[in-house]
Amino acid sequence: MRPLSRRSFALLSLAAALPLAAEAAFPDKQVRLVVPYSAGGGTDTIARHLAERLRPRLGQNVIVENKPGADGIIGTDLVAKAPADGHTFVLVVTSHLVNPAVKKKLPYDTLKDFVGVTKVAVSPMVFLVNSDFPANNPRELAALLKKDPSKATYGASENMTRLVGAMFNQRMQLNVTYAAYKGGAPLMTDIAGNNVGFGVGTLLTAKPLIQAGKIKAIGVTSGKRSPMLPNTPTMVESGLQDMEVYISYSLYAPAKTPREALERMQQEVRAVIHTPEMEEILAAQAATPVGNGVAEFNKEVLSEARLWERLVKDTGLEQE
């Protein structure tokens, strides 16, 4: 056999290295992080802290795009139909898994059109009223709503918090009307303005107005009192034993996104959220970082979807 020339050997070596170079270059363009809720809410806050710290780790710009509307469905649908090349992700709350149980029709299949990347963080929810409202705990709230039906409305910005409000409605035998909001920030504004009886939201979103004295927290859904709200009782303390529930902030990508892209993003997100700086940022907003692996998270998604479907049926929440 004729030996290879120096030039031929160099070309073959370059060709052999190309697949490895292409893989190492991922991501090779700007990364989109879609938030299907309004700016200023809890999900948006986490997304922006995350994007800022992912940019140097990924070597690419990471932009946050707010696409609110229809309980997060509009923005989530954009991601379902985006190219599955590992450069588009969506950060959603637990409503992503609740929506199939409360919506008659979705423009996508929640379990087939997405693949999970990781659960970023979890946080308890909080029951909120105007600062002048006389109730200081969930039982006092229920008593006042029964006494004055004109205040018997509750606001929520997505179907997870709507479900928690419906659970309270059922457990306390109330007849409370649901008012939908496009995001946590406008809901907080209406609670502060006394335009809705009470609201169910996250501490991440509610914290600024609680600190400003414009709204008041009267119950949290965590197992123990929050260090942020040491004087606010838990729902369990108020006798609602099955209302220890948490909202999760989770990252998904379009189905068929390359596995290496999912694994890379999961590893970088996990690294970011477990830095002391990010842990402090999350803790200040009553959120706990998670960052579980791709396979573990996708297994968890299936079990949680079944759980929320059962709770929706038990609560009697009607499909829209």
Structural write-up:
- The chain folds into 2 domains: 29-123 and 247-315, 3-Layer(aba) Sandwich (D-Maltodextrin-Binding Protein, domain 2); 124-220, D-Maltodextrin-Binding Protein, domain 2.
- The radius of gyration is 23 Å and the shape is globular.
- The protein has 320 residues and is of the alpha/beta class.
- The longest helix has 22 residues, at 294-315.
- It has 11 helices and 10 strands.
- It starts with 5 loop residues before the first helix and ends in a 5-residue tail after the last helix.
- Strands 1, 2, 3, 4, 5, 6, 7, 8, 9 and 10 form a 10-stranded mixed sheet that branches.
- Helix content is 43%, strand content 20%.
What is the total tally of β strands?
10
Mean pLDDT: 90
Q: Radius of gyration, Cα only, in angstroms?
A: 23 Å
Order of helices and strands: HEHEHEHEHEHEHEHEEHHEH
Strand content: 15-25%
| CATH class identity of the largest domain | Alpha Beta
Detail the poorly predicted runs. 14-24
**CATH homologous superfamily identity of the largest domain:** Bordetella uptake gene, domain 1
The largest sheet is: 10 strands, mixed
CATH architecture of the largest domain: 3-Layer(aba) Sandwich
Helical residue percent band = 40-55%
Q: Which fold name is given in CATH as the topology of the largest domain?
A: D-Maltodextrin-Binding Protein, domain 2
Number of helices: 11
The shape, in one word, is globular
Number of domains: 2
Distance between the termini: 74 Å
- The chain-level structural class is alpha/beta
Index terms:
globular; D-Maltodextrin-Binding Protein, domain 2; 43% helix; 11 helices; single chain; 320 residues; alpha/beta; 2 domains
